[in-house]
Amino acid sequence: MSQPPRIRDAVAADLELLAQWAQAMAWETEHKRLDAHTVRAGVGAGLADPGRARYFVAMHDAALAGHETVGIATGTLMLTREWSDWRNGDWWWIQSVYVAPAHRRQGVFAALYRHVEAQARATPGVVGLRLYVEKANAAAQRTYAALGMQDAGYAMYEQEFR
């Protein structure tokens, strides 16, 4: 990929791809097989309600024969918000990050991150960006550090209700 990807808001037509990528990410990072129907419904709910989630898609413009250009989706991330009473503002959480295998290590996540970072800095009341990373995912941790993020020093606990 010679040029940085173009970043756009996800649309309803992206639902199937985003759901497939969410399932692939869960398997690659946590070896979890997610229920396809549940993931599809979850992505659909997020796409339908920007207050719940916002998705962004990285696009690589590829030239076809005859000088025609087609956009190829290469990666995605989802944003959610968390209110902070300590800071009187919102943290934007980066979640559901996925870069298609053929496009990894080519700046796709960095482009997505910089796009979201610029929007966050331009939005009054946003106090910063956060994300979760698997403890053993050293490559992702290096990527996040290179973009200026720091280990916040928290361990995460959960109780899932099924």
Automatic annotation (TrEMBL):
Annotated keywords: Acyltransferase, Transferase
Record CDD domains: NAT_SF
Matching Gene3D superfamilies: 3.40.630.30
Keyword Transferase included in the entry's annotation: yes
Residue intervals of the N-acetyltransferase domain: 5-162
Transmembrane segments: none
PROSITE patterns, sorted: GNAT
Pfam families assigned to the protein according to its UniProt record, in alphabetical order: Acetyltransf_1
PANTHER family: AMINOALKYLPHOSPHONATE N-ACETYLTRANSFERASE-RELATED, AMINOALKYLPHOSPHONATE N-ACETYLTRANSFERASE-RELATED-RELATED
Protein name per UniProt: GNAT family N-acetyltransferase
Organism: Cognatiluteimonas sedimenti
